[in-house]
Every structure is written in structure tokens, then in C-alpha cells.
């Protein structure tokens, strides 16, 4: 986790002094310290020497800094800051997890997770056993997902991609006598 700076040259007469903390995420521009550790996704920083909203991606805070140059100076090279990629939303996670739940049911030839769960009180023992195992698994999947996303919100783990959270879901254990 660190600070990545990108330069944008601009003709102006003011000076620029930048210091980056080596123990944390504090950026000091012309004597004004900005604590960037609270940036989770995107933030606007109140400085006329920061050209765009700062954002966190892959653990690093990305900052586009205006680098002034005087009338007799050559401008520095212009660094292109990568585009901000919004992290997955709660709806993105929900949709992907529900799709994984439904795929698990469909692998047993049920239409969806809801369809499979509806067999919990079936008079067919095999269907009832599959539904009960599925319901227990589905509940543990959602409990795990919400616990992990709460850990992200609390800063206890980096925000996973949708694919990562789906890959962390426990596999279902079907009843032995089912199919």
C-alpha cells in the first residue's frame, strides 16, 4: 500500500514541494499534509495542485499532481494516470453469489435455487434431502459472504473482486444417497 504520483505539467509561477510518508499514506504538498489512509474508493482533495480526484486501486492511492513550470523551464513529462475502476458494489456481489447458488441447483437439474429449496418438504425422500442440504449450504454461503463484506467495510480485508468472493464460497455437500 502506497501513494502513486502522476505528473501533469502546467505553466504557472508557484512552487511545488511534495513529500510522501514512508510510514503510512500522508502526502504533503507545499507544507499541507493530506492523510490519504481513509480513501477507500475515490475522494476529492482540496488542493489546486491536485488535478483530479484521488482513488485507491489495488491497495495504492493514485494522485494526479500538477507540476508547475516557469517561463524559462521545460515542462516535465506528462504521466497518464490510469482510469479509475469502481470497485464492485453490493449489488454486484449479490448478483454473482445468487448466480452461483442457482448454478449449484441447476447442476442437479433444478430450475434455480428457489426451485430446489421448495422441495424441502417433498414426499420424495431424495428431493427433500437434497433441498435440506441445499438450504443449509445456501444459508452458510450468504452468511459467509455478508461476514466477509463486513470485514471489508471494517478495513479488516482488502475488497475482493466478484470472482474472488465467489471462489471463496464453500462447496456444497450433497446427501450420500441422493443421485
Task: Walk me through what this model shows.
The protein is an alpha+beta fold and about 180 residues long. It folds into 2 domains: about 5-70, no CATH class; about 90-165, no CATH class. About 30% of the residues lie in helices and about 20% in strands. It has 4 helices and 7 strands; from the N terminus they run E-E-E-E-E-E-E-H-H-H-H. The chain has helices at about 90-105, 115, 125-155, 160-165; strands spanning about 5-10, 20, 25-30, 30-35, 40-45, 55, 60-70. The strands form 2 sheets. It has a 4-stranded mixed sheet with strand order 1-7-6-5, with no helix packed on it. It has a 3-stranded antiparallel sheet with strand order 2-3-4, with no helix packed on it. Strand 2 (about 20) and strand 3 (about 25-30) form a beta hairpin. Helix 1 (about 90-105) packs antiparallel against helix 3. The two termini are about 50 Å apart. The model has no long low-confidence stretch (mean pLDDT about 90).
What labels would you give this structure?
three-stranded antiparallel β-sheet, 179 residues, 7 strands, alpha+beta
Concise structural overview:
The chain is 32% helix and 20% strand.
What fraction, in percent, of the residue positions are helical? 25-40%
Indicate how many domains the architecture comprises: 2
**Total strands:** 7
For the biggest β-sheet, the strand order reads 1-7-6-5
Distance between the termini: 49 Å
Strand content: 15-25%
Structural class, by secondary structure, is alpha+beta
Number of helices: 4
For the sheet with most strands, the description reads: 4 strands, mixed
